[in-house]
Amino acid sequence: MRQILWFRRDLRVEDSAILSNAKDEVLPIFIFDRNILDKLPKDDKRVTFIYQNVLKLKENLQNLGLNLLVFYGEPKEIFIKLKKYGFDEILTSIDFDSFSKKRDDEISKIIPLKRYIDSFILTPSDILKVDKTPYKVFTAFYNSLEYIHNSTKIEEFKSNLKLKKVDFDYSFIPTLENLGFIKQKLPEFLNQSPDELIEKFSNKIQNYQENRDYFYLDAGSNLSVHLRFGLISPRSLFNKIKSLDASKKEIDFYIKELFWREFYNYILYHFPNSEFENLNGIKVNWNENEDDFIKWCNGNTGVPIVDAAMKNLNKTGLMHNRLRMVVSSYLTKNLLIDWRKGEKYFALKLLDYEASSNIGSWQWAASTGVDAVPYFRVFNPYLQSKKFDKEAIFIKSILKELENISPKVIYTENGVQEDIFLNYPRQMVGISYSRNRAILEFKKANNDRKNYK
Ligand SMILES: Cc1cc2nc3c(=O)[nH]c(=O)nc-3n(C[C@H](O)[C@H](O)[C@H](O)COP(=O)(O)OP(=O)(O)OC[C@H]3O[C@@H](n4cnc5c(N)ncnc54)[C@H](O)[C@@H]3O)c2cc1C
């Protein structure tokens, strides 16, 4: 048996389904996929992160007596060439977004493809309600999985240590420049290993539930990027968090967050159209004004919390969860712009971009998804600033022009605009007016759907 082990987003050797299921002679490979890379800007930070971690994966595989063959090209062409070497099958991990499914369908016509759930804990097809339909409400989904999230340990995969590497020339390693990218400076935590981040988080978890919404604090685990690229598996993360010296209440709270990630993957599997359509079927009369969208993208909306969050995203690829909720609500409700535009923009910018979590969260914010925020609950961005960053510490750290402005002014609607020495953009829309407009529009869309049914 000769197998290709295609590493894609599971850049690790611990708890690896493919290294565990592999037999005999293997060719581990990683492809810098032109179909993905050609669409990205040259300063994409994720490519620097992936590049560094592909080199680490090569080293880790070498330590196991294997190696990693690195390619730069189109998967289809690469597998057509590899087929000539008589491989029986390809082992890899599975993703449920349309791009991944289409790519895998094509490849499986060249060499049989075996795919494993290796980036998530749950197998979505296994979890159904008594009536055999999928869950749509998180709490019911989560409660049905008590036997998993209440356990202290989930079984992990053990690598097959008897594998032999296929004799090949493994020496090709393109530089980032060969791939057409410029090396980017990454936030410091991305140079740390998952274990180092868990160690740091062990000092924060005791206050996680209380502090996680305060977006000027660093109260989260910062593990979403490592999870995204599989430097740690969600199973190992689950086990490591469960063994921390912290109260059950805090540990359970964190595990529940991890299961939101599972839930959105589950939803994308069962409702693949949610990538493109309002999952609840409503038709919203979206605002198509491109200038409005661009102002949101660039952080020029005139609302300091939204502007600071967007400017920081553009610069660093990072955004706190509470701020993601604020800017997505502002875009879809106050500006009444289609969530799909925001989703695509986040996909381009977020270091931790994960199709299922991003699509699910955007549909949640837009009140178009499953278990979404009710359409009449529109976040007031000024109250969010006041509640979760009372001293405007985060906002001032990004919007330097507001450094000497009182926090009270910053979280008062039109406050900064009244300061004649500041040249701050005018608000695009009044908060109360736009809130009422959104509620009316969503009410109409929901009624139309009911009448149509
Ligand atoms: C509009 C919007 C878009 C989002 N897009 C993404 C995305 O593309 N990729 C992504 O990983 N997360 C996304 N999230 C969820 C969340 O914001 C991030 O997972 C979190 O900010 C990552 O920081 P952390 O690792 O410190 O999280 P922690 O608070 O330490 O949480 C631990 C882990 O739980 C998971 N998690 C936490 N909250 C959520 C959530 N609401 N939904 C799904 N998983 C969650 C993440 O894997 C996270 O790493 C989005 C949220 C919103 C509102």
Indicate the radius of gyration in whole angstroms.
23 Å
CATH fold field value of the largest domain: DNA Cyclobutane Dipyrimidine Photolyase, subunit A, domain 3
Overall average pLDDT:
97
Bound ligands, named by name, code or SMILES:
flavin-adenine dinucleotide
Q: Helices and strands: which structural class?
A: alpha/beta
Percentage of residues in DSSP E strands? 5-15%
CATH class of the largest domain: Mainly Alpha
Cα separation of the termini = 54 Å
Shape: globular
The CATH level-2 architecture of the largest domain is identified as: Orthogonal Bundle
Number of strands: 6
Helix content: 40-55%
Family: Belongs to the DNA photolyase family.
Cofactor: (6R)-5,10-methylene-5,6,7,8-tetrahydrofolate; FAD
Protein name: Deoxyribodipyrimidine photolyase
GO biological process, one term: response to light stimulus
SSE topology:
Layout: E1 2-7, H1 17-21, E2 25-33, H2 34-37, H3 45-63, E3 69-73, H4 75-83, E4 89-93, H5 98-108, E5 113-116, H6 138-143, H7 146-149, E6 164-165, H8 194-202, H9 208-211, H10 224-228, H11 234-242, H12 248-270, H13 290-298, H14 304-316, H15 321-334, H16 339-349, H17 355-365, H18 381-388, H19 393-398, H20 407-410, H21 431-452
Helix pairs in contact: 11-12, 12-17, 14-15, 16-17
The chain binds flavin-adenine dinucleotide.
Residues 212, 220-224, 227-228, 257-258, 260-261, 264, 321, 324-325, 328, 346, 350, 352-354, 357-358, 361-362, 365 line the site of flavin-adenine dinucleotide (FAD).
Keywords: Chromophore, FAD, Flavoprotein, Lyase
Pfam family, one: FAD_binding_7
Family: Belongs to the DNA photolyase family.
